[in-house]
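Handoff note, outgoing to incoming analyst
You'll be picking up this chain. Sequence as last confirmed:
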Amino acid sequence: MKILFITLEQSGRQIVKSILDDNFFKINKNQISTFGMDEGYLEFNDLTNIKITPIMGFVDIVLNLKYLFNLRLKIKEIVDSHLFTHIFFVDSFDFSKFYIQKFKSNNIKYCQIVGPSVFIWKSSKAKFINRNFDRIFSIFSIEKSYYNSDIYDYIGHPLKNKTYYSNNYNEIINIGIFLGSRQQEIYKNILIIKKLLLNLKKYKDLVFNFFVTNEYYEFIKNYFKDNYNIQIHLNDHSYYKKISKLDFAFACSGTVHLELCFSNIPHLIFYKANIINYSIFKLFVRSKYLSLVNIFNKKEIVKEFIQNDFTATNLSNFFTILKFNKDKLYNYRKNMFDGIKSCNFENFRSSIITDYLEKSS
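Most recent structure output, in case you need it:
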């Protein structure tokens, strides 16, 4: 048995870390390799031999075709040289499909961890998994009806085990800022967030906490070199404890939304995409919301500021209402708590993955 975990996004890296915390993988450490993990994660043998470039939307795919073909070839070379028996693609299903369509081998068992959200996207993606994958490990129980019963397993959500629940109901002072995990998101969002901070500068008690990965630390530090009363935190081993200390957060739509919900931190979501990407997204997605709590509850529980609504004025106005109206803040937080509870997320069970490996090896 030789196992490779492939992840191409920051959210996927967090999931891989949760999986590899299981003692099974530590015992079999010499048989485990990863591809796409960050430089600070040295527990297992990482085989990344190309700079990972997060891709966001149709336009990025077109502009990065050469990179994607090169990435696929680099992974194939690694797979051939190490003779892996199992490959786990973590998130980024479109790349998983891109790879398997070209290089699928009958000597390897292919597994997808985190499906392509077929409950809001095209169900044809589930059909591809049913035909080409040995296992789909889902973090959403709602997906069960889309997959063949002999390949589907529900493993719960990894973030449920990682986050720390906050009972802090004090005044809003510590503010979290989450610009996104992709370069395109950060460079676009930071312009509006800087205006937001200027709007909120009149509230002298506020402390703004930016959470960033290593590669963007210096950029954020230099961008806000003027005094905005900010602190910059790396997404390290203390990340989840730090976000549990927040009183409120402004967050780019993504995994951080659930991290904040599980931590019981009131927040709002913002997002602005390339108009072509957004038009394609709206064409295929069967929901008018971006955040999962809103999608599952079919109503806006966590406030979303999307596309042209994502402005510094809109964000600061909404924040000011909650900061100075304790009843509205309490109700907002309670609705968020009830909303995430009704989603029925379960604790992550890595044992389902290890049981599969023990039986299939």
